[in-house]
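Checklist before submission:
- one chain only
- standard amino acids only
- sequence pasted in full

Submission:
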Amino acid sequence: MGTAQRPSLAAELRQSLAADFAVNPYRSDRLVLAVWRLGQHAHGRPGAAAFALRRVHTVLDSLYVRAVMGAELPRSAVVGPGIRLPHSARGVILHPAVRLGAGVTLYHRVTMGVRGAVGPPTAGDGVYIGPGAVIAGAVHLGDGSSVGANAVVLEDVPARATAVGARGRVIERSASQAAVTASSGLSDVHDGVGEGPEPVLPPRAVG
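Returned file contents:
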């Protein structure tokens, strides 16, 4: 049996944008998505046309997505259909190897990257990630899970669970730092788990 022929770049792009635009009604959101999806569908394709489109994407990405929106949305990232980008993905930083399922919501200033040499994160379908959240390392966000605003996620989040709060822990102190702490009469820094701003979570259906 022969191998099924891959749809044309234009057909793939139209299909992706139809799903994305259905959940992103604002022009600025759609412009970011159009640039990002153009790069994604041209990425890895052979031929002169795909090569030219990658060059076009590089220019648009540099001038608008990065310079204006302050976002890093790599074309190598694997992203399912129907992604929501409230606030046009301003300040969103994604590792080039991030994988996101369908119907993911990414608020502004979200960071998804490696932790040392470990990572990057992945997310299932219908995941909600609130503004300012950081997901670092080989973390998986299960289907339908939520990450609250400014949360720092370093471990897997089970399906339909919610992760909130910032994690901070002193892992090493120099002698000079210890001396400053002792002379000031301040106690050691604690881990701060569960503290921080109130989480911003998606509305849940009632009934």
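Reviewer check: Residues 9-163 form a domain with the UDP N-Acetylglucosamine Acyltransferase; domain 1 fold (CATH 2.160.10.10).
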